[in-house]
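Quick one:
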Amino acid sequence: MPNFKLYAFYFSPTGGTKNILDIFLSKWNCDKILTDLSDNNANLEDVIFKKDDVCVVAVPSFSGRVPQFIIPKISKLNGAGAKAVLITAFGNRAFDDTLLELFNTMTKADFICFAAMAAVTRHSVMPKYGNGRPDSDDISQIKEFSEKCRNEFVQRVNTVALPGNFPYRKYQSIPIKPKADKSCNKCGLCAKRCPVKAIDPQRLNKTDKNKCISCLQCVAKCPRQARHINKFVLKAAEIKMKKLCGDRKENAFFIAE
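Output:
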């Protein structure tokens, strides 16, 4: 096996996608360089790939699509023919066009996308759906797939065939926007960590509804748990999504011939 580095780029606002990524990476005994795509200070143009390197990109599926702020970021990468594994985590509904959109973006950036997976995790907004995922069966499946990718990536020269449609399904952010309560001490961490800059550092109790993508990273990162979504709006959304998210969904794995 050639000497290589593994670069992993991820967006995991509430931790579910990063958990899936960590399970996958646990089977790779090599140098790993991880980059959080929500870090607005990360300069992806500085990353230099060699042909023998492996790039893993892990994102959540938002309304069946890649979170749109990520597309221009990973488009700045220059894969130089390096191999790539694509990962999406979805909250027990469906991943729709997410992997295909990620594949097309990475292919344009000169990566050979030879493998991909869609893994079920707890829904980030409505955690009652997918609660407890990934479970022991999921973890075993992901690790087995990871080992296959690790052992075979050198000889995989073709690109993987993935499900999805083009034009992609319409991207729609769910109408659930978090707000700060009176316990907010104005530390500013929420504004700093917002990947789309929807929170004004000078007015932390306000959220720009046009910019907000409802990722809930501000809720997850708040040290005082001072940011919330309206419980009545959340309950209505849970009822609406029950038919789509209520039954157990399974993981999907894809690898090139």
